[in-house]
Backbone:
């Protein structure tokens, strides 16, 4: 049986050098803080940095369209996220809001790609310039998540079957880009097309 995962993992989507270039362009300096002075995650767009991702995205769009069986309409402005040490974000659906007891689609987003721009590391020596402890991209409904791997992009449907959050960064800063793709016809996620769970979807990775 051919097991298909609803998560499409593109390893080495972009090079570590390109990640460093984008972070330099974004020029993150002083983090945003909450009312108590604690650092919080922030997001911004940047045309120069976004163009680096768009150029690579053009090459993988045909395989994404074939995999998920959709026709591409366009891409929203890419959002660059900074999670300074001690920050996290809250669980959310990419294209929907919970209103009057049910999820309602509120944005024309059909697929989301999260591009990691830092590496997870829980051992020493620790390179704070590009390594982070924490910052796992978690999917509570699927009971698993992805630790950051610099240059890897995780693609998934944007609907409420894929509520996600990034866990608190404990050491170092997490940089990542969030890409939203729109389809010509709103994509309807059908779980029966992707049977199993992360143990079967990623069996080859788990047994390495």
Residues:
């Amino acid at each position: 049986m051919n097991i298909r995962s609803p998560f499409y993992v593109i390893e080495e989507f972009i090079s570590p050098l390109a990640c460093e270039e984008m972070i330099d362009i974004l020029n993150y300096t002083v983090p945003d803080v909450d009312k108590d002075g604690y650092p919080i995650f922030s997001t911004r767009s940047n045309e120069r940095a976004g163009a680096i991702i768009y150029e690579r995205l053009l090459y993988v769009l045909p395989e994404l369209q074939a995999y998920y069986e959709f026709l591409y309409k366009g891409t929203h402005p890419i959002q660059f996220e900074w999670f300074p040490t001690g920050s996290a974000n809250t669980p959310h659906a990419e294209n929907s809001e919970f209103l009057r007891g049910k999820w309602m689609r509120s944005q024309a987003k059909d697929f989301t790609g999260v591009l990691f721009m830092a590496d997870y590391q829980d051992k020493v020596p620790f390179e704070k310039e590009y390594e982070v402890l924490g910052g796992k991209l978690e999917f509570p409904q699927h009971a698993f998540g992805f630790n950051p791997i610099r240059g890897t992009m995780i693609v998934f449907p944007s609907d409420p079957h894929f509520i996600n959050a990034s866990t608190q960064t404990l050491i170092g800063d997490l940089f990542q880009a969030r890409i939203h793709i729109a389809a010509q016809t709103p994509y309807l996620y059908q779980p029966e097309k992707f049977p199993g769970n992360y143990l079967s979807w990623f069996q080859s990775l788990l047994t390495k």
Remarks:
- The helical segments are 16-26, 47-68, 198-201, 203-206.
- The mean pLDDT is 94.
